[in-house]
Amino acid sequence: MKRFAAISCSDDEKWGKSEGIVKRYEDFYRIKDEEWTGFHATRGNVPTIEDLEKFDAFLISGSISSANDNKEWILKLKEFIQALVSLDKAKKRPKLVGICFGHQLIGSTLGGQVGPNPSKDFILHAEEIVGNEAASKVKGLEGLFDNGPLRLLESHGECLTELPDGAINLASSSSCKQELVKFSDNILGLQSHPDMLKEEVQNLILPAISKKFNWSDEKIKEIEASVNMKLHPDKMNEAIKKFIQN
After folding, report:
1. CATH architecture of 2-245
2. Residue 204 CB burial class (10 angstroms; 0-12, 13-18, ≥19)
3. Do residues 191 and 176 touch, judged by C-beta distance below 8 A?
4. Per-residue pLDDT tens over the stretch 22-68
5. pTM of the entire predicted model
6. How confident is the model over 71-125, as pLDDT tens digits?
7. Fewer Cβ in 10 A, N or C end of the chain?
8. Residue ranges covered by each domain of the chain
9. CA distances (Å), 117 to each of 80, 93, 123, 192, in order?
């Protein structure tokens, strides 16, 4: 039986605390009857080097924190990522997928740069993700963009602005160049949120963010219109499942 681990980097009540994030990942990325374990990173519960031999894949969630924060749990998580990267390439290595903050954390750990969005504004809308030829060559992602761009939800104040050495960009959007990145054969990162529902953007995120950034009524209406367009999270989520399964 395969063993997968969800590393929750949020303990916010609106998501059901850290346990809610773990359950969300299990619900979205369960393949069949594999065993799932949750790690609650913000509470200091971070996987160790010993855990690398116990799991077939790890998924790192989003967070309100920054990959540049000097928090103990973030530093421990970076140490864990470094340990995973350092495993013998001749042997089977666990897969690692980072979503939003997880994506940025992986990039930062490996030597890339994370900083404010190029627009200098918070990104909260549905974005068209345009894949390139390199994406079709990644095991598990074949055919992902065959029918054109994927429209996915975005919610982030920062993004990966510079790739680490050896990483390959697989897809971009108008607001973020590094939307989907292959960091190595066993490590994938994505800036978008295929793990999020449009109702959550509308009801849990938009009211607070629009107030914080003093967005105009016109901008709020544009965001609402974008998230109500046809979205393609299922395609991306299926690709993630294929990637961690192989």
Report:
1. 3-Layer(aba) Sandwich (3.40)
2. middle
3. yes
4. 999 999 999 988 999 999 999 999 999 999 999 999 999 999 999 99
5. 0.97
6. 999 999 999 999 999 999 888 899 999 999 999 999 999 999 999 999 999 999 9
7. N
8. 2-245
9. 26, 32, 8, 13
